[in-house]
Design brief:
123 residues; mainly beta; OB fold (Dihydrolipoamide Acetyltransferase, E2P); 5-stranded mixed β-barrel; 1 helix; 49% strand
Length: 123
């Protein structure tokens, strides 16, 4: 089973695009930092989400947002501008969650609704 879970901060503004058949595709990076002081190390992960998940994440995430990403680790091969074939690892996201490990997310209260009164008095 090929599963990976990454937690870290969104490294750049997520980029939402649509394929020719109108499939939403969201790409962003996540910085996974561990250690302290001079032993601190950051690993960057390329994340891709599709469909509804991509659209929901696009309106929920911004640079710096703390996230937990679950998905499948894949190898992506492409030819760069210089004509050199490049291989990199990426995560195809199945789920993206906001993390509150290092701080809460501002809670938004639902608007209060006025009680509905019946149009007529009951008999």
């Amino acid at each position: 089973m090929n599963r990976i879970q990454i937690s870290g901060n969104v490294g750049r503004e997520p980029e939402l695009k649509y394929s020719q058949n109108a499939m939403a595709i969201l790409k962003f990076s996540v910085a996974d930092t561990s250690g302290r002081d001079d032993k601190k190390k950051t690993i960057w992960h390329s994340i891709t989400a599709f469909g509804d998940l991509a659209e929901h994440a696009a309106v929920s995430l911004a640079k710096g947002t703390r996230v937990v990403v679950e998905g499948k680790l894949t190898e992506d091969t492409y030819t760069n501008k210089e004509g050199v074939e490049v291989t990199r690892m990426q995560v195809l996201a199945d789920d993206i969650s906001l993390s509150i490990r290092f701080g809460g997310i501002e809670r938004i209260e639902a608007p209060a609704t006025e009680p509905q009164l019946p149009d007529e008095e009951p008999f």
